[in-house]
Description:
By secondary structure, this protein is an alpha/beta fold. The chain has a single domain, classed as ComB-like (putative 2-phosphosulfolactate phosphatase, Alpha-Beta Complex). It has helices at 14-19, 33-42, 54-63, 87-90, 107-114, 129-139, 158-172, 181-186, 204-211; strands at 8-13, 24-28, 47-50, 68-73, 76-77, 99-103, 120-124, 143-148, 220-224, 230-234. The strands form 3 sheets. A 4-stranded parallel beta sheet has the order 1-8-2-7, sandwiched between helices. A hairpin with a 5-residue loop joins strand 9 and strand 10 (230-234). The longest helix has 15 residues, at 158-172. The protein is globular and about 45 Å long. The two termini are 21 Å apart.
Amino acid sequence: xxxxxxxxxxxxxFVAGARAARGVAVVIDVFRACSLVAxxxxxxxxxxxxxxxxxxxxxxxxxxxDALLVGERxxxxxxGFDCGNSPSEIxxxxxxxxxxxxxxxxxxxxxxxxxxxxxxxxxxALVNAAATVAAIRAIDPAxxxxxxxxxxxxxxxxEDDLCRDLLIARLRGEPYDERAIExxxxxxxxxxxxxxxxxxxxxxxxxxxxxxxxTIDRAVALVRRQDDVAALEPLRRG
Length: 238
């Protein structure tokens, strides 16, 4: 078992918790924003630009016409967008070298809010949980704030709380019953849409792509490049 870090771990929730983040902020949105980002970057996308507002996303698309416009509100795809907040749908697009503009009800709200105060913002998801913990260990910060964005950034949810508990256990070098993860996620209220054939905007495959643990080996961080746009990119090793 990995040695525990000597760091202060803070638990917060929702946008207010993201704004109050100290040190390294880990913004969790398992169903589905942060899982989509991890999958898109692993499939070759160059960057994902998280945006809080719908109008802001559309304005950015006008500046970056080759970018894919991705987003949702109340889990439904947005009119005129290229793709909803669906990992399985985004993986059908040619992603190599592409920029994604991403706005969602919870995840991107937390990411943009955390950027106002945190030293570094990292996405939190199950699919790259091990890579995220490894990245935090390599950074060795004094403080890490782990923010569960919850359902629509207003109600705590099983999947984000579970992911936070897993990350904290691993950071502390403590045991965690990972065998129960899939069953707990299937029983989560937010998972019901994936198993509802009428919810075409939430394909069943999305559940699998969000519920997998440690299938992507790169952490994802919010960085600012030469065009002064803060974007999510794979965190460089070392």
